[in-house]
Structures are given as structure tokens and as C-alpha cells.
Amino acid sequence: MQILFLIASIVLVFMVVRLMLKTPDVPRPEHPSKRRQTMSDHGYKTSGKMLRCHYCGLHIPEEESLQAEGRPFCSDAHRDLFLTQESTRE
Ligand SMILES: [Zn+2]
What CATH class does 48-90 carry? Predict the structure, then answer.
């Protein structure tokens, strides 16, 4: 009976050790949306003029901006969101 207890505890220790070794250390992949900001931070070719997104306030090079109703936007999404809000406003 004692030997069964011994085997059981060995198996238990083995399982715990395996579980600890198994703990994944997966590196998170870089988020692709970070690229845009990094590019402008590292001397991305621009005329030097920065515009401010009318929707979120993000500063973007003039070449990368989108214009709508004379206002600059950082992306199609923000331009569309702004235009949608404008059209639904009373
Ligand atoms: Zn924006």
C-alpha cells in the first residue's frame, strides 16, 4: 500500500513539473497599426507640413491625410465617421 502512495506522489510531481514547463511564452506579434506611427517618427518623407485629424486629433503628414469638406483626416474610417455624424446631425 505504501508503494502505491509513493508512485502516486511521483506521478503527481511529474505532472506538476510538466505543467510548469508547458507554460507558453509566446511572443505577441507586432500590431500592424503601429507601423504608420513608427514611419512618421523616423523621418518619413514629407513636405514637413503636419495636419491634425479632425476626428481623433492625430497628427499626420499632409501627403497621408485625406480631405473632406476642407478638413484633414487620418484615415478613411475617420473621414467616413465624421461625414456620417455630419449628415445625421439635426
Ligand atoms: Zn483620425
Answer: alpha beta
Residue 50 backbone phi and psi in degrees, to 5: -110, 140
State pTM to two decimals.
0.45
**pLDDT, tens digit, 9 for 90 and up, residues 10-61:** 889 888 888 888 876 667 666 555 555 545 455 555 568 999 999 999 999 9
Question: From the CA of 25, how far away is ligand 1's center (Å)?
Answer: 34
Whole-number Å distance, alpha carbon 79 to ligand 1 midpoint, is 8
Distance (Å) from CA 57 to ligand 1 centroid? 6
Amino acid 19 reads L
Q: Exposed/middle/buried for 65, CB within 10 Å: 0-12, 13-18, 19+?
A: buried
User: Cell 518619413 appears where?
Assistant: 44
Cα 27 to ligand 1 centre (Å) = 29
- Other C-beta atoms closer than 10 Å to the C-beta of 16 total 10
